[in-house]
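Q: Given only this backbone (300 positions), what sequence would you predict?
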């Protein structure tokens, strides 16, 4: 008598049901774990970018890499490395991140977040290191992009390279309460607690693709890298423990790090006293003009 037999249909269905149940229990946990891994790696990359700036600053009187100080204005009718006035027209993030790659303080891969959600953002796999020609005033690959509405080779936002912010914080200040790098923010600050409190357009917030960073769906989370090098993961636009900014009257106000609260401030001593993260790809040559940079935002 043959005692070997296969599974019955009912037994197979029971096994399949158990497997489906286990998958239903485990998949959400695995998804959370993957999202956490992306967030941790993203924080590590922000820290690496900041460390690259600190290393550069150690030989530059504490000043972080600044494109306009590298590609200076002509000196006696020629491009002379280290000579001439700072060329503020190059002080935007497109030139900044490209210059960091050119001098090996960052890599194209480090500038691309593992949590990236935009199809317009991709690492620069064809970066041309041969573009370095100082005698012709060329110090980085000029094809590197930083316009998230067209093409960007970097995921990260950075503080503007002008005004009081640049003088006070674009250096190795070790400030534990000033954000210098981080996750990109919602369109022009719309949908943040600062703007919503003044009747802002919450629809821009709700439709933003950036809500999907780190695996989220309906809430914006960010990694913020402070000037002492520590990185904080938060859902706050005005992070706890962050320094307040000074308004026209000299009063201290809560600082939304995605809104340029002093953009129209005409008092040079306080203009730009807040922390502000953005991504710029054009600049004019007036360092006192806080409106002189072209910024790109997701969902423009």
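A: Predicted residues:
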């Amino acid at each position: 008598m043959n005692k070997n037999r296969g599974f019955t249909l009912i037994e197979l269905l029971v096994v399949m049901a158990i497997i489906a149940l286990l998958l239903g229990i485990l998949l959400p946990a695995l998804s959370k774990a993957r999202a956490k891994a992306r967030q941790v790696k993203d924080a590590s990359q922000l820290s690496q970018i900041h460390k690259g700036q600190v290393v550069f600053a150690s030989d530059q009187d504490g000043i972080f890499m600044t494109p306009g100080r590298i590609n200076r204005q002509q000196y006696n009718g020629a491009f002379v490395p280290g000579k001439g006035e700072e060329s503020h027209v190059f002080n935007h993030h497109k030139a900044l991140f490209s210059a960091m790659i050119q001098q090996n303080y960052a890599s194209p891969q480090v500038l691309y977040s593992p949590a990236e959600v935009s199809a317009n953002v991709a690492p620069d796999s064809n970066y041309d290191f041969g573009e370095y020609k100082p005698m012709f005033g060329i110090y980085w690959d000029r094809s590197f992009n930083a316009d998230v509405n067209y093409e960007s080779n970097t995921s990260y936002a950075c503080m503007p390279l002008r005004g009081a912010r640049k003088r006070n914080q674009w250096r190795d200040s070790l400030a534990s309460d000033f954000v210098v790098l981080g996750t990109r923010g919602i369109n022009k600050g719309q949908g943040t607690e600062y703007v919503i409190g003044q009747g802002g357009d919450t629809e821009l917030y709700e439709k933003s693709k950036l809500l999907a960073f780190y695996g989220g769906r309906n809430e914006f989370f960010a990694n913020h890298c402070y000037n002492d090098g520590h990185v904080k993961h938060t859902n706050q636009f005005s992070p706890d423990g962050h320094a307040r900014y000074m308004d026209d009257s000299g009063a201290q106000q809560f600082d939304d790090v995605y809104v340029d609260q002093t953009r129209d401030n005409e008092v040079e001593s306080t203009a730009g006293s807040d922390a502000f993260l953005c991504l710029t790809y054009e600049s004019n040559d007036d360092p006192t003009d806080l409106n002189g940079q072209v910024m790109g935002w997701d969902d423009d």
